[in-house]
Amino acid sequence: MDTKRDILARVYLSFIGIAVLGFLVLGRAVYIQRVEGSYWRALSDSMRQRFVSLDAQRGTIYTENGEMLSTSIPTFDVYFDFQADGLKEKKGKRFNEKIDSFARAMSAYFGDRSAATYSSELKAAFQRGDRYYSLKKKLSFDQYKAFRNFPLANLGRNKSGLIIEVSSKRLVPYGMLASRTVGLSREHILSDGKVKKMNVGLEKSYDSLLSGRDGQRMVQYVAPGTAVPIEGTETEPLDGKDIYTTLDLAIQDITEQALLAKVQQIEALYGTAIVMETATGKIKAIANLGRRPDGSYWEDDNYALRNTEPGSTIKLATLLAVLEKRTSSINDTVTIGSTTKGLVASKWVTDAERSPKPILTVQECFSHSSNIGMSRLALKAFGNKPTEIRDYLKRYGLVDRLPIDLTDLPSPRINPLDQKGSSVGNMLWISFGYGVQVSPLHTLTFYNAVANGGKMMKPYLVSSIRQGGVAYRQFVPTVLANSIARADVIESARRSLEAVVTEGTGRRAFKDLPFSVAGKTGTAQVWDGTYQYKDGVYQASFAGYFPADRPQFSCIVLIRTKPGASDIYGGTLAAPVFREIATKLHAMYVVSPQPVQLAIKKDSSSSQYAGSRTSLLRVYSAMGMQQIDSSANASFVAVRAEHAANQWQAKKSATGGMPDLRDMSLRDAVLQVEQLRANIQLEVRGKGKIKNQSVLPGAPIARGSKLILELN
Question: Which residue, of 73, 530, 541, 608, is most buried by count of CB atoms within 10 Å of its CB?
Fold first, then answer.
């Protein structure tokens, strides 16, 4: 009985122990699931492999002549993998030998921490075995090149444990010049973690072409938020295409500086100026300067595309319309009166200045910018059918949205012309620039058509799209309308525009100018929701072209004054800016009608290139070219070609170091690198001749190291 009791006691004890253990296991499971669940799930997520995106290199935006307006430059993030075999072998012998000299190099070059601090931090990370220790971020290319020559960093990835990640930053080399038109390319991370692009200007209009196609790479997450790339899993990105604009950097600079000087002088709210090539519609310059709170000016908005009441520059449309309708001819007379006010169809119309005489011809009404005269001409033409004036405005491109290569363009707005009681009044206000809102670019396109003999050209900003230097898409001048009016009407309008400058409201601004200009002043009181007429804000403008007898450029200048400004007129604010732009462009670009005999050298060009001596000899022999050979039969030579003479010199580099590959073709560079027998890994970027190499000429060569060749 005692034995049985003893056995049962042991069984019960074992059962109780198992039950307690089970309850402990169950309790721990519940605790892990309920309390620590989020931590372990995150850790599980962090340990898995996944594909991450590799950003494509965004395309570059150029001027028509090839100067960079917006480009992406590489930046480099540097990480340490302290579990790399090359660092761990022999109990970290290589790391311990190199780390102090590496720390001194880091401290000397970057100057942000002492060598001792660098050394202690890196040693601590090595002891922890960090797999993705962040060392430096956003290094420039020059900084990265210097860094790769530091002790330890020059040993290659496996031996040094260094991981380099390349990203890009958008750079606008010329700062403010045309920056609002070229635009911005930036990203914003939303609250849900999604990335939203916030592009404007050409960067937005051509975003899909500039962006290219992203690649991908598999990474292994070794800790929450820390990923290590897996070699050999990359799908290379396809870089974006390059945009070549119609802009000319010199013309843009002239335009922007002339406008800046005036808006600073009068403390204007903003100003815009556009220069267009008359025959083609190419926009050669577009400046947009807005006043910032600190009083400085910057390209903060595209005022060239903003709809406003244009004022008297719209009178050119009224003039064309009444002449085209044949209700008036250019030499007909109009009674203006001897005061600045006149009653037109029961509406009081006011002129800015008293008329020089009580009766003016139609041309004089236009050249002296008489609101009374132009409204009476409009009443005679459209008083019975006010909606008809809209048809003429549409013919002149002042009603519809412009087909220019920019997004988010507004359409012009016109007050109702079919409402009983207000239609005639609205038509009268439209005839001299109120009750209609158009952008400066609309106005310039219209004036350019008159300069072009009636042919309206589509304004455009992009001349070509290229990839790797090869044309992907080419844009050519496009005719929107072969003739916006009869030839005799266009001729009368051109004579009237010239009269504005010789005897009208633009006379003082263009006095003694050595070449002819045609154009029209405009002054409008501003009412736009922010400002009302009582605030005394005015918009001064001048639109025209030059030379008047054979137009090459059309231009518009528009300046919005501050409230209560003392000078408000288009003839005194905008016209002088136009004059400065026209004077400089005439001297630089307008072809003289008298041919000039120039003494030109047989060949004034110069260039330099390099390559294999054998290949160059073969080419020179086939083309019958001569050379001055000072290369001492070197295998690779550098050629300086100038004034039809070709000087050969040996392509040298320090003994045992990296050769100078610049100016070579890729084929010759690969041949020379292979002759080093150092198992160098080549990475090639771009096309053409080699312009830069990541390992400088003469630098020591580490076997198996990486060499980046940049071609242009």
Answer: 541
